[in-house]
Specification:
The chain is of the alpha+beta class. It has 2 domains: about 80 residues, Ribosomal Protein S4 Delta 41, Chain A, domain 1, CATH 1.10.1050; about 80 residues, RNA-binding S4 domain (Structural Genomics Hypothetical 15.5 Kd Protein In mrcA-pckA Intergenic Region, Chain A, Roll), CATH 3.10.290. It has 8 helices and 5 strands. The relative contact order is 0.14. The mean pLDDT is about 85.
Length: about 200
């Protein structure tokens, strides 16, 4: 499996992202910021938006394109469907629940089989969750995640319900465009792929 090994803060400054969106608490040095003087073309802006979404969700190009093709076949606005599909990925849901500090850590928890989906051990981070799916921690990792969750105290989105005593969660509804916590122009991504 290919792994993106790009430096996080360097990539964030290039894409205009706040590292807090990715789960990193400290900000990079302000000495590195250099204003760009060259004009960016329309294609360049579209490509940057696509790279931003790919970087935030940690998806490589082939997987992103397959997700886009699925979003195109769905009813509704393609850009919103794409973001909804990426937001309802298993590793992203684990991150949103606060079980992991970053999406990369959430993906590792899923890959190592520490989280159950509907009572079964699932180790595929790209699984798209549906309404009614239940997420539960394995007993071996419960204590570590409880301490991390208490220290992190990230707000759980409205489309997920979380039980703090048993550390189980359920998908109540589908995520919407309002649940995306970073600035993105999904219409630019649609324009890029429709060429």
């Amino acid at each position: 499996m290919a792994i993106a090994r790009t430096p996080v803060f360097k990539r964030c400054s290039y894409l205009g992202l706040d590292p807090i969106v990715l789960g990193y608490t400290h900000k990079p040095s302000i000495r590195r910021k250099k204003p760009s003087r060259r004009k960016v073309s329309e294609y360049g802006l579209q490509l940057k938006e696509k790279q931003k979404v790919r970087f935030v969700y940690g998806v490589l190009e082939k997987q992103f394109k397959l997700t886009y093709q699925r979003a195109e076949k769905m009813q509704g606005v393609t850009g919103a469907n794409l973001l909804m599909l990426l937001e309802s990925r298993f590793d992203n849901v684990v991150y949103r629940l606060g079980f992991a500090v970053t999406r990369i850590q959430a993906r590792q928890l899923v890959n190592h089989g520490h989280i159950k989906l509907n009572g079964k051990r699932v180790d595929i981070p790209s699984v798209t969750l549906k309404i009614g799916d239940e997420i539960e921690l394995m007993d071996s990792i419960k204590q570590v995640v409880k301490l991390r969750k208490l220290a992190n105290s990230r707000a759980v989105p409205s489309w997920l319900s979380f039980d703090g005593e048993t550390f189980t969660a359920k998908v109540v509804s589908s995520p919407t465009r309002k649940d995306i916590d970073f600035d993105v122009k999904e219409s630019a991504i649609v324009e890029l792929y429709s060429k």
